[in-house]
Amino acid sequence: MTEKTVAAAIVTYNRLALLKESLAAILAQTNYLSHVIVVNNLSTDGTKEYLDSLNDDRIVVYHATENLGGAGGFNQAVRLFGEQLQDDFVWLMDDDTMPEPDALSHLVEFVVAHPQAGFVNSQVRWGDVTGNPSWMNVTAPRAFTWQRYLTNTQEPAVEVVNATFVSVMFSREMVAMVGLPQKEYFIWGDDMEYTNRIADINRGYMVINSIAVHKSKENTKPGDIVAEKDDSRLWRYNYEYRNRVLTARRISKKEMVKTLTVAITRDLRKTLLKKGVAFRAKKLGVIVRGLWRGLFFNPSVEYANGLRQAKSRSLCDAEMDLLD
């Protein structure tokens, strides 16, 4: 069998020190790495000059002429993978992701042994390899599959619903079937929506022995507007709620209703009634506007030039047929 090749991809914005550390960790992978795509989202901290000074044929740099957001950056990274490279897999991560030296080997070797996997992702720790789980990157196990992991500790991976773009890998064939990440999300939720698309064709797995460290500033839960203390971050939640609704709509009407119900009965209610909530009025406006915009937000899915094929039958449709 010909050895598989992988293009890693990093999206970066004004975090040069972390980018250098992440790039070094990726280039130190023991097997399979062929290229590293770096999308620079118009950084102003010397990132451009640093990247332009590198002399490594494996590194492919894209300097954006505007800040594309994380979603736009990953859209561009997967496009470059599809249009300019011929590697078998693309492996996505933020600029504060530090994979262990064998992280990629474990991902590839699992996929080779389990070709039915649509995507694979690493177990993500926060701060360092011995730290707590990175809560924003914890992936939910798929219902009716988790029990087998309680009785069989030798399982190499856990079947998961979706994954974040912090050490997640999928194939060229999958990109051809599902298209590119949704750049219009700009920030937050694009990874969940994209891996949902993949998992509707072939299920995703968290590979237990593949470890990556996420060096985010805080180990917070994703999208927790009630606990948010930083006024300068509230604009992000406009995208969070809008994107959350579209992601649910693309799954089913039932999922959309569930998402709206949870946002109203939990987030809106807590923001309104809980004592000591910072920026209460502004947060209430963000939640309402975001949910409303999500009902009408419907950007089309893009494909890389020359890389498009009909997807196989939806697993969700197949499951519904079994229930009929």
Per the principal axes of the C-alpha atoms, what is the gross shape? globular
CATH architecture of one domain: Alpha-Beta Complex
Specify the helix fraction band. 40-55%
Number of strands: 9
- CATH level-1 class of one domain: Alpha Beta
CATH fold assignment of one domain: Spore Coat Polysaccharide Biosynthesis Protein SpsA, Chain A
Topology of this structure?
Elements: E1 6-12, H1 16-27, E2 33-40, H2 47-53, E3 59-63, H3 69-84, E4 89-94, E5 97-99, H4 103-113, E6 119-126, H5 147-151, E7 157-160, E8 168-171, H6 172-178, H7 190-199, E9 204-214, H8 234-251, H9 253-273, H10 280-294, H11 315-323
Parallel strand pairs: 1-2, 1-4, 2-3, 6-9
Antiparallel strand pairs: 4-8, 5-9, 6-8, 7-9
Helix pairs in contact: 7-8, 8-9, 8-10, 9-10
Structure description:
The chain has helices at 16-27, 47-53, 69-84, 103-113, 147-151, 172-178, 190-199, 234-251, 253-273, 280-294, 315-323, and strands at residues 6-12, 33-40, 59-63, 89-94, 97-99, 119-126, 157-160, 168-171, 204-214. The protein has 324 residues and is an alpha/beta fold. It has a domain at 6-220: Spore Coat Polysaccharide Biosynthesis Protein SpsA, Chain A. Strands 1, 2, 3, 4, 5, 6, 7, 8 and 9 form a nine-stranded mixed β-sheet that branches. The longest helix has 21 residues, at 253-273. Residues 319-324 have low confidence and may be disordered.
